[in-house]
Amino acid sequence: MKGFVYLPDVVTLELDQEACIGCGICPAVCPHRIFEMRDSKAFIRNRDECMECGACALNCPVRAIRVDAGVGCASGMINTWLAGFNIRLRNDDSCC
Amino acid sequence: MSYIVPPGLYAIGEPEHDSPVVVTANYKMSYDLVRRTMAGRDVWLLVLETYGINVWCAAGKGTFGTGELVRRIETTGLSRIVSHRRVILPVMGASGVKVIDVKQRAGFEVLFATLRIDDLPEYLDNGMSATREMRELTFSLSERLVLAPVEIIGGMKSFPLAGLPLALLAAFSSGSFSINRFAVALILYLIAVLSGTLLTPLLLPLLPGRMFAVKGAVTGCACSLACAVILGRSPAVGPVDLAAVILMMTVVSSFYAMNYTGSTPFTSPSGVRREMQLALPAMAVTGGIAIILLAARAVFL
Fold it and tell me: Could you tell me if the ipTM is greater than 0.95?
């Protein structure tokens, strides 16, 4: 994304180009334009820009894409972690 | 106040059997935005049950998902109302909706239109084709600030948990309580929260570091230094006070900046996990030192 890059070399995105059938759904669903079609195969342009939303892997008809999908949200992770200790912070008016 | 709209099929204008079907979440703000943007057009609006959660977050949780979309198409009898077999979804819903499954189970083709609702009219006018810009996320100043009130309110909720106990501790010096010290400490905590929840998002692309915790520590440290310069003029404020103020404000700002990862559209969960593994211990140590300084000052310094 223009002007914003998060931590390098942490993203779990993987593409199996052998398995790719070139349907073109991954560039259509990716909000960061990670994928590009080259010679009827998907190609990863910039892996570090991936936010692991999982739209590509979910929609790939031949499961050529693998990513540990989730939401990149520290407070969400802290709440999940606290819930593991049976601590719940009230979170009524959150939209997330 | 309820932010939930009943799920189902709504008409905007006077849609006919060939009018487009736009899909959204039943979060009131999402629903209102679509209605406002589509005003003056004849469009069907299919609202999914996401329990009042926005499209992006609901897609991540799977409630704005294949199952709910298929179910809602069936329960509303959409195939009897429209003659075509297309539904238009926001791109941010793609992480919950599997296009080929919707086609197989409900017979409807899913079109992912645009990222931003503002681009939807142009997308429809262009014969449902998106330009490159409509499919590329941005994070402009106004987009960064629109979530600031939520972040600030969230930060203020930590007042009774963290701000108040800290201010109470800071109010004591050499065993005696001072209401002035208490009030100043509360204000400093407030400034640190604003540094993490407002100043950091505002300056986000200009701040050094990839980690949000680092960016927040930079703004927090800058704010605390400015405060220390002002406070240092008072003879009642000692070097231990100033050290504690700088350390604690840096930690609080850094923590809330790290929380801001949840409001950005470019942080990956793997990255946030890595950041938390590095930043949380550093925050705990720094905050711990600040509390030890304050406690020492409270009792005998």
Answer: no
